[in-house]
Amino acid sequence: MEKPIVLVVHGAWHRASHYTKLVEPLREAGYTVVVPALPSAGSEPPTANHTLDDDIETIQSAIQPFMDAGRELVAVLHSYGGIPGTDSVVGHTIQDRRSKGLRGGVKAVIYIAAFAPPAPATSLFDMVRIKDESDPHPDWWTPKESELLKHVTDGLVSLNEGARHALYQDIDIEVADEALASTVKQSTASFKQKCSHAAGTIMAHKTYVACQQDAAVPYEGQVFMAEAAGANVVALDCGHSPFLKDEESAKLVAIIAGISV
Question: Are 82 and 199 spatial neighbours (Cβ–Cβ below 8 Å)?
Fold first, then answer.
């Protein structure tokens, strides 16, 4: 039986390289894994121009050829990636495509400590109760206007040392050092733009991996979003980035494999 394509949508500030401990075992197990680089995250301008729509377009462009070929997909969405990931798969599930006489599509969605929109017209700023860039931000991120693109009104958000605890508090120090050093700037425009769909409207199986020790997205908030989405909850005793730990990555691979059957 042909294995589904695995789509991994990375979180804000992160790149595909952060997910190596998850991606490589999946590929070794025979899965084709796609990790599109979201344009809202990057070290160089014009990152500050890029919005949620740009991320959605990038994700859909990455998976469309597989759907055109009739392939099935499992979407794995981490952190911020839950927002563009949700909008990218709504209307493209197996059930949606079958109703149009088409083969293939998304068969399951797995949220990992992710922002699963509980309602349409919701932004990340809405979900973390930030009204605009002038509001207080968590002390582990640093909003700043782009220094190279003076005409850009939306700024860039970079991480500071406080992110070590928020994102990597249970990660080995060497791994956490490398992960933090590899993060990039993020467009605040992607945080302000509102999504089009609630996670609950996805016509496919949904699982939410809730990280109980998460210092970035509180566990209670994760469970709330999971329940609003109608997702099965799998709790892991870990922080926000389980894919950086061998044991937790193995658990994630097992979850993906179990859903892929």
Answer: yes
pLDDT digits (tens, 9 = 90+) for 110-121: 999 999 999 999
End-to-end CA distance of the chain: 9
Cβ atoms of 77 and 256 within 8 Å: the answer is no
Residue-range definition of the domain harbouring residue 132? 5-260
Per the CB < 8 A criterion, the answer to whether 3 and 253 are in contact is no
Query: Considering only CA atoms, which of 231, 254, 221 is closest in space to residue 86?
Result: 231
Are the CB atoms for 10 and 41 separated by under 8 Å? yes
159, 43 contact by CB (below 8 A): no
**Is the omega angle on the peptide bond into residue 120 within 30 degrees of 0, that is, cis?**
no
Name residue, tokens 């950086």: 244
User: Which tens digit of pLDDT belongs to each residue from 40-91?
Assistant: 998 666 677 899 999 999 999 999 999 999 999 999 999 999 999 999 999 9
CA dihedral 38, 63, 247, 208 (to 10 degrees): 90
Number of independent structural domains in the chain:
1
Q: Does 146 or 178 have the greater pLDDT score?
A: 178
CB atoms near residue 73 (< 10 Å): 26
In eight-state DSSP terms, residue 261 is -
CATH number at residue 53: 3.40.50.1820
In angstroms, rounded to a whole number, what is the distance separating the alpha carbons of residues 24 and 152?
A: 38
